[in-house]
Specification:
Layout: E1 4-7, H1 13-24, E2 28-33, H2 36-48, E3 54-58, H3 64-77, E4 83-85
Parallel strand pairs: 1-2, 1-4, 2-3
Length: 87
C-alpha cells in the first residue's frame, strides 16, 4: 500500500502545491477543504493534470464532529495515515 497523506486547506495556494507535489511523488493524497465545491474543483484540476491518486474530503478543523467523521473516513478507507500537513 502506498503512503497516505492528508493536506488541510489543500484547495488553494501552498496547500494545493503540497498536494500536487505529494501526488507526483506517488503519495495517495486526501485533499481537504472547508468548502465542498472548492475542494472538488481542486481535485478535478489535479486529476486533469494526470495526478489521479487524490481524493477530496470536506473538513473544517474547528468542528469536533467533522474531525471525528474525517478520522473515521481515514481509518475505514485507508487504515493508516503517514503524512499530515496542516495549512
Amino acid at each position: 500500500m502506498s503512503r497516505i497523506g492528508v493536506v488541510t486547506g489543500g484547495n488553494k495556494g501552498v496547500g494545493f502545491e503540497i498536494c500536487r507535489q505529494m501526488a507526483a511523488d506517488k503519495v495517495t493524497v486526501v485533499l481537504t477543504a472547508r468548502d465542498q465545491k472548492r475542494g472538488v474543483d481542486a481535485v478535478a484540476k489535479l486529476h486533469s493534470s494526470g495526478l489521479h491518486d487524490v481524493v477530496f474530503h470536506q473538513l473544517d478543523v474547528t468542528d469536533p464532529a467533522g474531525i471525528a467523521s474525517f478520522a473515521n473516513f481515514i481509518d475505514t478507507r485507508f487504515g493508516k495515515l503517514d503524512i499530515l500537513v496542516i495549512i
